[in-house]
Hints:
The chain has 24 helices and 8 strands. By secondary structure, the chain is mostly helical. The protein folds into 2 domains: about 55-410, Na+/H+ antiporter like fold (Up-down Bundle); about 455-585, NAD(P)-binding Rossmann-like Domain (Rossmann fold). It binds adenosine monophosphate. Adenosine monophosphate binds near residues 460 and 485. This is CPA2 family monovalent cation:H+ antiporter-2. Belongs to the monovalent cation:proton antiporter 2 (CPA2) transporter (TC 2.A.37) family. It is found in: Membrane.
Amino acid sequence: MPHDTPLIATIVAGLGLAFIFGALANRFKVPPLVGYLIAGVLVGPNTPGFVADQELALELAEIGVILLMFGVGLHFSLKDLLSVRAIAVPGAVVQISFATVLGVGLAWMLGWSLGAGLVFGLALSVASTVVLLRALQERRMIETERGRIAVGWLIVEDLAMVLALVLLPALAGVLGGEQQAATQSPNILALRFDVGVWGVLGITLAKVVAFVVLMMVVGRRIIPWLLHYVAHTGSRELFRLSVLAIALGVAFGAAKLFGVSLALGAFFAGMVMSESELSHQAAEETLPLRDAFSVLFFVSVGMLFDPTSLLSNTWPILGTLFIILIGKSVAAFLIVIAFGYPIATALIISASLAQIGEFSFMLAGLGVSLDLLPEQGRDLILAGAILSIVLNPLAFAGAARLKPWLEKRAGNVPETVEAVPIGPATEPGEVATITAVPVKDDEDAPPPPTKMTGHTILIGYGRVGSLVGQSLKAAGIEFLVIEDADKTIAKLKSEGIETVAGNAVKGEVFASANAAGAKRLILAIPNAFEAGQIILKAKTTNPEMVIIARAHSDAEVDHLTGLGADKVIMGEREIARGIVEQVMTSVSPANTPTPETPPAAA
Ligand code: AMP
């Protein structure tokens, strides 16, 4: 491999091997991210053969973090963020404190200093943005209440880490490490003028506040305006470019000028852009890049990992894993329950946070450079990260298994209050319980079954489904909607349309719509893979039901027809039909001929 093109070599080797091992993992029914991590280990310095550039891989991975957080911001409003602060702030603070105490405990057992323990514990306390967001996206949870709680929690953790990263150099001397030279500090001003730890803290917080205010006051006006201006130029290329330039530019500026993390900067850029009606398209423009770069994140994590450390450090690694998987989860679970959320929500939040990633590496790197954390600490953090990321899908599976058991233990739940164990006591009757907290909606509880029969089931109420729904309503055709985005569900309810909330791919959600007694199924969702799964289910439940589906290509039309759809409408073909109709009308408005339309879909 030529050494003069390290960037190209890293991207090619990273993406190429990630593809091969991701596909193999998929073949063996293992999550593809395990394949990406293995690809990283193979191109890393700890295995023989080609070695990709580690620094470059990490920087490329940061682009993945930026685009992911930007994408999440696009689905968030300030109101959404504030609506979860009551749980996210105390949740993250308690969890960070708990994990740090456990980290200090393990450090003490390994004979490290208190300072080392603090850095180690902090590094174990913060979850990876990439892992968490991908896990939520795969489960279509970002736009649900529990998704918002997890994202809010992540943002608080992010802020805490921004503070930790600037305070550590200032505190290193006190904690038994090396006071860092002022020029290397992210808060040069603060140290040069020797404002002390409180000064550093104050300046950092002031910068974060200044950034948020600037985004909310100035960014909120300029960014949507810029987007509209570019959209009006009619150049798709320029539109794409503007979205990327804004996402990356704001994130980078936030980091360089305001000391805010890249992820947080990107989140705010997305949130501000979400005010524009073009945000839907903006999100789509960044998807391919986002996916490619977040794969590079896993490759870069794999590169840092030394497989031999598993043998030389077995017990400390197990201790580290225990803190990440069990310690953090128990803390998160208890606090979510204490706030009156259902067990299912608490389990999902715990599972999504039971891993560590990019911030942990940054803290570990800084800790070692400040002489606070021994090299062994960094190795443990790296091993803990890769293993917890591999085990994360299992954490979700474990949460799903634990749910019925925990719910049973919680006993018969009264209408408005939930009794849940919060203490170690396990005997019935001796369990410490919280009973005074109102229970929030349980998103996992199967939706109540409909009483409708002979009806039409409309899945998806977005750009397509809402138009279909309005026409069905006008024609007096009885229908219900299955939809999984919270905001759309609220809108449907306010319009008095019967709605089954949830992902239609899930058996219990689909069953609640009484498919067995329905006359017609309309799939107005854009994802043909999901639509295919639903058709299979519908055909087994009710072979008589007429199925109309939506597609975007001839291949999708064939796929859905092959699975049993009676009629598949291909979006692009219908657009052409509409255009032809317009042309024909304008050619001879008095005597409109039947337009020559492309052949109808299956
Ligand atoms: P659009 O592409 O604008 O027509 O929007 C599609 C709508 O379908 C969105 O509101 C999605 O939330 C919804 N949707 C997509 N997939 C599913 C699914 N599997 N179950 C329920 N709703 C879905």
